[in-house]
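Complex 201.
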Amino acid sequence: MSIEFPDLPYASDALEPHISAATLGFHHGKHHKAYVDKLNAAIAGKPYDELSLEKIIAAAYEASDTGIYNNAAQSWNHTFLWHSMSPQGGGSPSGPLADAINERFGDLDGFRKAFRGAALGQFGSGWTWLVRTAQGLDIVSTGNADAPTTNGLTPLLTLDVWEHAYYLDFQNKRDAYVDTFLEHLVNWDFAAQNYEAADAI
Ligand code: MN3
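Predicted structure with manganese (III) ion bound:
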């Protein structure tokens, strides 16, 4: 049983003018696909091959099986990233997630400042996440392939801050990329679904 390489949830030009079709084409069609292909080659004929992607991540982390862990986590992280953005993104959260944002960060602007600070403060490659913890919401950054699920956190949203995510459109200007995500692309409906699903756990 191999891990599926999923389609984007929208057309590759659907995030223009904010993220170009060239960026999404390379990022999904080359980078994301390479992680899935390498993972499938590495797990073929091994016990990992019987597991879901989430369970492969947990098992490889536990076993310090670094190559499998990195490719499995990157496969999962990218699928989560595509859903963290939307052609109808931006705007404000609503419902219980909005209340939780206000409680933790003061207001949406406070959230934006904290997320921006974390994304710009991540040295080198990695990911910035809005997560739900036992205490409420938090923002964390992880290096390289690391996913916050391995620390028991529930991810609500993510942004890929590897240079391959923004270099064609923004060159070295990670700040402009992060601001564009927060203003035009962030998928609050996806975050709200993840927030509310975590209630059931
Ligand atoms: Mn990437």
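The chain has two domains: 21-84, 95-199.
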